[in-house]
Amino acid sequence: WGSNCKMDDIMSRVRRQVGEAVAGASDHIDAHYQFYRTSLLLLSAGLSVYAIRKLHNPKLQRFRNAHSLPSDIIEASKPLYGEIVAVDPSGLRFYHLPLLRRVFSNSVSDTANMAEETICVRPCGIQWTPKLEAMGWMNHVLVGRRVKFIPVQRVSEEHPGVTEGWVHTREWLRRKDVSYELLSRGLAEIDESSPARTDSHLIQAQTAGLRLRKLSKSRPPKVVSAVTKILRAIRDRFNSPR
Fold first, then answer.
1. Does residue 176 sit in helix, strand or coil?
2. How many CB atoms lie within 10 A of CB 27?
3. Is pTM, for the whole model, over 0.85?
4. Hey, what long-range contacts does 170-179 have (CB within 8 A, 24 or more apart)?
5. What is the pLDDT of residues 178-197, one digit of tens each?
């Protein structure tokens, strides 16, 4: 009986010490709750940012320009989604939009500093010496439109800020490839130094474009009839300000 009483005393003393330790820890946590909460949030945020940058996931991380675009994304030809915000002599200005940005935002941010906030891309397989007709077509069809960009390579060491790749847009349920569309309209030519120069679709498009250009040169100029001239004059008269 004596040994049982001694064991009970020990167990009660242990329970009392554990209870006091738990109460002390609880009081300490309550007193420093804001500190621990902020530290935990900062640690979680830091680990999340590190994981996103380490994975180079284009669905989570936004690539601001060609210099921030990792080489493994280009080598793996991982598709990027975004919007064409401008067309200039150096290429198409592509604003990359990760998945959450596309879901919860209907417009891109301010692109006043366009060189730092966009990726300069060029359609794959064609020579980038755009004529006025080609610039006009791209401005009309691409600017302000969401596109899928599949990077293939950096243009050259002299132009590390320019990336070549496939640019796809959609019109209703039909997907448009910008390289194919420019070639088929006779607005571009195949670049013999591009890895896509042997693509059968591009060769077919260039053949159609050459045929279209020959047809437009051989077509006689359009004759405007006298009736058409009269109708245009009447329309201009009514539309002119009084």
1. strand
2. 10
3. no
4. 170/146, 176/141, 177/201, 178/92, 178/123, 178/138, 178/142, 179/123, 179/124, 179/125, 179/126, 179/205
5. 999 998 888 888 888 777 77
